[in-house]
Recover the amino acids of this structure.
């Protein structure tokens, strides 16, 4: 099962796990794939703490770190992170603040105490830079991945100079070609059914086109993979591996709250929506009263990224911390893909990896039985 890209990285299996949870990173890397830690919600110090833990538990295995530098965003011209945050917070209209606050109140979501610790949201090059600097101090961090755009040239050079690989997500062919022109090492091609920020074109249609368009660059297939049959379909299109996000959210190792887990288990594939209501860019998530409220004609329109993210930041924290209280899940931020309909139990990450492989070979056997014999 080792693809050329696996050999280049030094991993056994072409299974890539995007996650915000360090335990998942370690478990997937130890199972033979590779865990990639989403760092968008960490300060540099918090990321250092997470990576200390990963380094202490991962042994000789390797991992990656994922940041989010959008191609374009409000405040791109700011030269300090403090000024950027100050400017963004000041630019949020009062009407939007009141609307968000009222939604939380109406659903009984408690406020967070002032002393609840430092929090961060890094949707800019300035903020991502310190995260990349930290990641590159770690010898076992072998790849940096960027969401929402092509990473800036100096970061690409920095990562290459440190002897690591750099890739980026792409939900459209033109984004993949842009990444290729910027000398990235691989593309994570995400179809519309995937969790988090996603475009319009489905995986089945986008993956083969991306493989052809950016060849010989390795492409990882993302969006809509939860079992080995879907993995086989992706691999048959010439990708170098599969990149899963949703499937780990309800794993034994994930840090999800019980109420969040219940929401995942209860949802079908029809219960997600692509909405701008949390980050300002279209992302796939569980549909609920929050996503519906922002779509009404008489309510405020979501702000552009990253303003909407700063506006909803408090709501993300509150609905996560108090996930089980009041009607919290009705206004909670639960990014997840359509594969949520395939999440019906909580498995360990190792079991997920082995299940993918078992189902993959069963599906391959099935294909061989229906091939015409000479
Ligand atoms: C909860 C959640 C958060 C995500 N956040 C990010 C992110 O910060 N950076 C990123 O590159 N991708 C992010 N993604 C997208 C994943 O990397 C991945 O491409 C996607 O989940 C694949 O589709 P799937 O959900 O069908 O497995 C996120 C996905 C989920 C489910």
């Amino acid at each position: 099962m080792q693809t050329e890209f696996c050999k280049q990285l030094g991993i056994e299996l072409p299974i890539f796990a995007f996650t915000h949870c360090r335990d998942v990173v370690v478990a997937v890397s130890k199972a033979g794939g590779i865990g990639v830690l989403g760092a968008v919600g960490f300060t540099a110090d918090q990321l250092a703490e997470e990576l200390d833990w990963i380094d202490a538990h991962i042994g000789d295995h390797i991992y990656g770190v994922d940041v989010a530098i959008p191609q374009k965003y409000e405040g791109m011209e700011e030269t300090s992170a403090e000024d950027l945050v100050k400017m963004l917070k000041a630019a949020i209209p009062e009407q939007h603040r009141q609307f968000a606050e009222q939604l939380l109140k109406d659903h009984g979501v408690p406020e967070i105490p002032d002393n609840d610790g430092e929090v961060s949201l890094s949707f800019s090059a300035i903020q991502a830079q310190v995260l990349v600097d930290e990641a590159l101090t770690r010898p076992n961090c072998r790849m940096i991945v960027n969401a929402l755009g092509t990473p800036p040239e100096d970061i690409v050079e920095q990562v290459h100079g440190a002897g690591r690989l750099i890739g980026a997500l792409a939900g459209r062919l033109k984004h993949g070609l842009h990444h290729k022109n910027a000398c990235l090492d691989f593309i994570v091609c995400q179809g519309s059914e995937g969790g988090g920020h996603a475009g319009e074109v489905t995986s089945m249609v986008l993956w083969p086109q991306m493989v052809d368009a950016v060849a010989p660059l390795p492409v990882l297939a993302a969006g809509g993979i939860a079992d080995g049959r879907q993995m086989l379909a992706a691999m048959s299109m010439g990708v170098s591996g599969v990149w899963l996000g949703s499937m780990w959210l309800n794993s034994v190792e994930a840090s999800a709250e019980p109420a969040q887990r219940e929401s995942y288990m209860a949802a079908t594939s029809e219960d997600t929506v692509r909405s701008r209501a949390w980050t300002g860019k279209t992302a796939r998530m569980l549909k609920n009263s929050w996503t519906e409220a922002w779509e009404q004609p008489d309510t405020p329109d979501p702000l552009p990224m990253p303003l909407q993210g700063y506006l909803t930041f408090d709501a993300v924290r509150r609905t996560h911390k108090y996930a089980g209280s009041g009607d919290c899940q009705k206004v909670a931020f639960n990014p997840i893909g359509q594969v949520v309909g395939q999440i019906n139990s909580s498995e360990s990450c190792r079991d997920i990896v082995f299940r993918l492989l078992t189902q993959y070979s069963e599906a391959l056997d099935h294909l061989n039985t229906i091939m015409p014999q000479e």
